[in-house]
Amino acid sequence: MSGFVRRLGGIPWRSIAGDALSRVFLVAQAYCAVHVVDQHLCSLAIVRGPSMLPAMNLAGDVVAVDRVSARLGRVAPGDVVLMISPEDPRKSVAKRVVGMGGDSVTYLVDPGNSDASKTVVVPQGHVWVQGDNVYASRDSRQFGAVPYGLITGKIFCREAGAISGANILLYAWPHKLGHKQLAIVKFAEKDKVAPLLCCCVHGYIDVKFCKL
Amino acid sequence: MRRQEGVGRREAERAAISRGDAAWGQGRGDAGAVVGGRQPLGREPFRAPRRHCADAGDLDVHAASVLPPPIPTAVPDQAHQGVPRSPAGLRVVGAQAAHRGPDPFRTWQEPWLLVKGCITGSVLGITVADWVASVVTMDGASMHPTFDPQQAERALVEKRCLYRYDFSRGDVVVFRSPRDHRELMVKSLIVLPGDWIQIPEKQEIRQIPEGHCWVEGDNAALSFDSRSYGPVPMGLLRGRVTHIIWPPQRIDRVDRKMPEGRIMAL
Predict the structure, then answer these.
(1) How near does any CA of chain A get to the CA of B39, in Å?
(2) pLDDT of residue B115
(3) A206-209 vs A180-186, strand pairing mode
(4) Which of A198, A200, B97, B141 pairs as cysteine with B149 (C-beta 3.0–4.6 A)?
């Protein structure tokens, strides 16, 4: 028993504690560095959903988000931005900026059902965002102009098909047929993707399958 | 006599290392042996001998912790014996090298440490300001009884409420202005999403939509708040004010205050 206690006393506790503390500090430094880069410089995000078709994939895309230019105010109409959703602050959405503060924006109110359009002036400090796929997008047409402070980053790079096993390259040629848009879509791997695409976008666009 | 002892000890140490004997050489209190191991990482004083021992980190901690005496008394013999793998041998060679002249590496060491310290400090500071708490300076009279407009008061803003957006009615909150994203505003959060509020000026009753909140200043006459620009999306909120920390005579908690009779909470 006393031999055990003596051995316990012989262990260099102070140096072990010192080593452990410095390693913990190193891990904390690394974590903080990752946080700073992710929140203030550049980040990666996964976006999914039908509202930005054909620019973004339905099943998901890895995108690179530039935080610096959004913070500096260098966002212009035509940019795709990542922003906090005005309807739920815990969610982020990706949409395209159509108008900045002071611009006059004309938009289709409900393109699936009617041809009515409206014109609105965007207030100062706000932006008007719309999804590319106007038939399946909840955007400024529903919740109004969005304050610029909700924009968290500008999407500048997209890695198509980086998500999941099915490599989808989605090309859509929209042909206007009355009120609905007919999109001819080409898949790389038809058997994996077709059922997915069918059940998700059914009702928004009519899909024709072509033999490759 | 001492030289022979030194030789004997080094041979024993080399043998111990090749055996992988972890317990050898510690707690012995030998003259000159360092009891308790090597310097912790990141806090090593600059010492030329240690720099050359690139292998020392690979070896077992305890075996490598036995340093030779700083004064290289037995140097000439050991340099000739030259088994370069032994940490003792390498350290001795390194001690020799230190005497050759000023080191180009050394002249950049202190400024580099300073730069490294600044970068580390700023990264840690930014992370703490984003996730734990930060300080904001007050300006303007819109929150008059709560914050004194004459002095530029500083308040502590806590960020832990942003993790799950759990705010309460009556909190003093900091948020990005909806009119100008570079400005931070400080007001009282009166109403949470889904509640109804009565606006006496316009004589109407509004329901606050999902994801938005209603903010008002305590000094109603001088306050540019939700009565002018409507409900504010909660994504703009940047924290909650909990304490005033400057000037010293005003150090105090900031409590919740509710206006009476205007809100129907769901």
Answers:
(1) 7
(2) 95
(3) parallel
(4) B141
Is the distance from CB of A126 to CB of A145 less than 8 angstroms? yes
Query: How far, in Å, CA of B235 to CA of A46, rounded?
Result: 20
Angstrom distance (rounded) from CA A45 to CA A171? 22
The reported pTM is 0.66
- In chain A the domains, ranked by start, together with CATH numbers, are 40-154 (2.10.109.10)
Which of B131, B182, B210 is opposite residue A87, by nearest beta carbon?
A: B210
| Contact of B256 with B241, CB cutoff 8 Å | no
Mean pLDDT across A63-78: 93
- The answer to whether B164 and B184 are in contact (CB under 8 A) is no
3 state SS of B89: helix
Q: Is A153 helix (H, G, I), strand (E, B) or coil?
A: strand
Strand order in the sheet with A206-209: A171-177, A180-186, A206-209
The answer to whether A89 contacts B233, with C-beta atoms less than 8 Å apart, is yes
Instruction: Give this complex's ipTM.
Output: 0.71
Residue among B41, B120, B181 whose CB faces A23 most closely? B41
Contact assessment for residue B138 and residue B112, using Cβ atoms and an 8 Å cutoff: no
Answer yes or no: do B124 and A35 touch at CB < 8 A: no
Q: What is the pLDDT of residues A125-157, one digit of tens each?
A: 999 999 999 998 999 999 999 999 999 999 998
- The residue among A6, A7, A29 with the most chain B CBs within 10 A of its CB, best to mutate, is A29
- Radius of gyration of chain A from its Cα atoms, rounded to whole angstroms: 25
Q: Can you give the pLDDT at residue B125? A: 95
Flag whether residue B22 sits within 8 Å of chain A, measured between CB atoms.
Answer: no
Q: Which domains occur in chain B, in start order?
A: 136-264 (2.10.109.10)
Residue B72 identity (one-letter amino acid): P
Q: State the CB neighbour count (10 A cutoff) for residue B194.
A: 13
Cα A84 to chain centroid, rounded: 10
Q: Is residue A51 flagged as an active site residue? A: yes
